Automatic annotation (TrEMBL):
Major facilitator superfamily associated domain location: 56-303
Molecular functions (GO terms): sucrose:proton symporter activity
Membrane-crossing segments per the record: 33-52, 72-93, 105-124, 144-164, 184-204, 216-238, 279-301, 392-412, 545-572, 647-667
Principal subcellular localization: membrane
Protein's name according to its UniProt entry: MFS general substrate transporter
Length: 673
């Protein structure tokens, strides 16, 4: 699971431009102050989905009988889905000529698939029982396969929905307003994480008994409803332009194949500008550390809790222990998401604004009737200049904080200490969701295509001046401006007279800043002209491909760390006794006599093996899990815990140190240019 999204690939046309034509105008229905929240609310539902999978997928698979090594293999679906779905959905959606728009059909179909997959994950045993009946080996095996299938489909479908949500944001906002759009996207994802992890920390089975008998069942229903509701809001209130068939200058159909897109990615990967290449390598090492934390935090906290708890003697006690361990892991993720949300609100005030971001922020609010409260808020929370830092330096600091959290596994072995450690990771995660994308977007806009090492401006080195002839241009454009977002009853499929040629539509036209600005603000009454920052020439035309390369540098380390995790689990995790036979719950060992013991599964009906009591006790002692009942009589539950996860976390800490060194080098280089 990636838990993060880049933009779909653009159709890079080289020196020419495609002759795509659109009918109608894009607009967002509703008041001015609700347009950015409306544009990004879908990511709230997406993040709630991620939260459910992050907190409950690992414990659920473990309860079904899979080992941690096998779970690591299942989680390959996350990075694989990100690697496949982003370029695939990008190409398909870019060329969609549906009367509902390019993005909305894929958004709604993906949402429906997400809901089906999530409900299947929550009710796997119930669906398996339709074909196999209850309480038998066939039901156990089919439940495992359906759970794995559901997780894979959740990963693939949610990545498709996320890609479309991000594409809608890019289609609607100009490059100068992308920081504000990304900031709102980050806020929505943070709020979604808080909601998702908080819900997982509450006993939903007593609050909503109709939603299911287990926590995962109730969460799957709630997450599905929120995902559907948030995307219905987007589908109804966001109106897209209709893409007409794509033709070249001669009128022939022209569409790039996925193979050609992959060739473009490879050729551009070899010629990336220096700054962009550095950002990609920093992301590579950073995600070697992030993926295990996103995937295994619940298991890590749960293992600590189980090792400090008495060994349960009954199946009911084991179920209660597992549920509490999962709830504690979810609680740690909840506190991390709270820190993430607070950081998203606070951190921008501590960052030195670039010229583009400062200007776009001023433009974003000066035409709004609500600009007054924004100005007052900024005056109230004004941060001294000496406390501010540039984005690259903040990124460096976040890597060091994350590395410190991972190395803290040497110092803590309690649930409280581990919860605090995971909560602190909310700060670097907030930076990871925002800073690299802002640096990358700024670099794309400011670099030139022949890579002359133009630096990203990290402070305000330019003033916005009014050009002499701009007022006439704005006056002529005001007639068309009033059409955009001002009337809620304007049709999104106007007549053919409004056909409009367009070039790079997956990322918007870099030269169409004014139109996109008006789309967001609904026109500006004072007619003030604004300088449009110059783009990066040929490099801005390759923005989609560069963002595709960036997502590859995020996904590849997830494959590598998954393989490494599987190896670590195989080496350090204790071997289970007939692991895949333990589907109903913990293994019980009713004592037959002083020397022999017959191992039974939780329902006490299917014999697995006959072993000696001495061998079982010696095995438990070797794992330091010897129960108190080692005397006479009783029944035993063999808990399968280990410290394997801390080695993976510490490896991630080392990778974060490397990322910090690279980002510090990048920050120093940018400051000296």
């Amino acid at each position: 699971m990636t838990g993060i999204s880049a933009l779909p690939l653009a159709q890079e046309e080289g020196s020419g431009r495609s002759h795509q034509r659109f009918r109608g105008v894009s607009r967002i229905v509703g008041p001015q102050w609700l347009r950015l929240p409306t544009l990004t609310i879908g990511l709230l539902g997406v993040q709630i989905f991620w939260s459910v999978e992050m907190s409950y997928a690992s414990p659920y698979l473990l309860s079904l009988g899979l080992s941690k090594s096998q779970i690591a293999i299942v989680f390959v679906a996350g990075p694989l889905s990100g690697l496949i779905m982003h370029p695939l959905i990008g190409v398909l959606a870019d060329n969609c000529t549906s009367r509902f728009g390019r993005r909305r059909p894929y958004m709604m179909v993906g949402t429906i698939i997400c809901i089906v997959a999530m409900l299947l994950l929550g009710f796997t045993r119930w669906f398996a029982a339709i074909f196999t009946g209850w309480n038998n080996t066939s039901n156990d095996l089919l439940t495992i396969w359906l759970a794995v299938f559901a997780i894979c489909f959740v990963d693939f479908s949610i990545n498709a929905v996320m890609a479309v949500d991000r594409a809608l944001l890019v289609d609607t906002l100009p490059s100068s307003s992308q920081p504000q759009g990304n900031a709102w996207a980050a806020r929505m994802m943070a709020v979604g994480a808080v909601i998702g992890f908080f819900a997982g920390n509450v006993d939903l089975t007593t609050m909503f008994p109709l939603f299911g008998r287990t926590q995962l069942q109730a969460l799957s229903v709630i997450a599905s409803c929120l995902l559907l509701g948030s995307h219905l809001v987007m589908a109804v209130l966001i109106k897209e332009r209709i893409l007409l068939p794509n033709t070249d200058a001669a009128g022939k159909s022209r569409r790039k194949s996925l193979t050609q897109e992959l060739k473009d990615i490879w050729s551009n990967m070899l010629t990336l500008p220096r700054v962009i290449r550095q950002i990609c390598f920093i992301q590579f090492f950073a995600w070697l550390g992030w993926f295990p934390v996103l995937s295994y935090t619940t298991l890590y906290i749960g293992d600590l809790y189980k090792r400090s708890s008495p060994v349960p003697l009954t199946a009911e006690a084991q179920i209660t222990l597992d549920a509490e361990a999962t709830r504690l892991g979810t609680r740690a993720l909840f506190w991390s998401s709270v820190v993430w949300l607070i950081s998203n609100v606070v951190l921008p005030a501590f960052v030195t604004e670039s010229a583009s971001s400062e200007g776009s922020e001023r433009e974003l609010f000066e035409c709004s009737s609500r600009g007054t409260w924004w100005s007052r808020l900024k005056r109230l929370v004004k941060v001294p200049q000496w406390m501010k830092m540039d984005m690259a330096t903040l990124w460096t600091l976040s890597h060091l904080v994350f590395a410190g959290c991972m190395f803290a596994t040497f110092l803590t072995s309690s649930v409280t200490g581990a919860t605090f450690m995971i909560a602190v990771t909310g700060f670097p995660w907030a930076v990871a969701q925002w800073t690299p994308f802002s640096l990358l977007g700024t670099s794309i806009l400011m670099e030139i295509s022949d890579d002359d090492n133009t630096a990203i401006r990290l402070s305000n080195t330019r003033t916005h001046q009014r050009t002499a002839g701009s007022s006439d241009l704005d006056a002529n454009a005001d007639v068309d401006e009033t059409k955009l977002f001002l009337s809620d009853d304007v049709s999104d499929s106007d007549d053919e007279s409004e056909l409009e040629p367009e070039g790079k539509e997956v990322l918007g036209d870099p030269n169409d800043e004014d139109e996109h600005y008006r789309m967001l603000n609904g026109g500006c009454e004072n007619g003030t002209a604004r300088e449009v920052p110059s783009g990066g020439g040929g490099l801005s035309e390759k923005a989609g491909i560069i963002l595709g390369i960036h997502i590859i540098f995020i996904v590849i380390p997830q494959f590598l760390i998954t393989g490494f995790s599987s190896l670590i689990f195989a080496i350090f995790d204790p071997k289970k006794v007939d692991m895949l036979q333990n589907h109903h719950g913990p293994i019980h060992a009713p004592i037959m006599n002083a020397t022999d013991v017959k191992l039974l599964v939780a329902n006490g009906t299917e014999p697995i093996a006959v072993v000696t009591r001495a061998v079982l006790l010696k095995w438990l002692e070797a794992r330091q899990d010897t129960p108190e009942w080692a005397g006479d009589g009783g029944s035993a539950t063999a808990y399968e815990g280990s410290d394997s996860l801390v080695y993976i976390f510490r490896f991630g800490g080392v990778a974060a140190v490397v990322a910090a060194l690279l980002s510090w080098k990048l920050a120093r280089e940018l400051r000296h240019r």
